[in-house]
Write a structure and sequence with these properties.
globular; three-stranded antiparallel sheet
């Protein structure tokens, strides 16, 4: 998975790793009571003026990975970033053709 955001390129196996790295670079404190979910809630709040409110509803029953992936998709959808998901399993690629 690759996410392009501003002049940064994030490469990781999953969305939560990318969001964790984004939080670290923003110097968002993830230790203790703060989590990736807290970072996502804070970041989504910054988009409230540009993104429809229904897109900003984080469900508590979703895993952090699902929320992180949805956040990256949201940024991609609204052209704030570019998400590239590539299958690396060759048998998966062969079945798709």
């Amino acid at each position: 998975m690759i996410f392009l955001f501003g002049n940064k390129k994030y490469v990781a196996a999953n969305a939560s790793t990318i969001v964790f790295e984004m939080a670290r670079e923003e110097q968002f404190e993830l230790a203790g009571e703060h989590s990736v979910r807290d970072f996502l809630i804070a970041e989504v709040g910054k988009l409230a003026d540009e993104v429809h409110p229904r897109e900003l509803d984080f469900k508590r029953h979703l895993s952090d990975e699902a929320l992180a992936f949805n956040y990256l998709c949201l940024l991609d959808e609204y052209s704030f970033g570019k998400l590239i998901v590539a299958a690396t399993n060759s048998s998966f690629l062969e079945r798709r053709q």
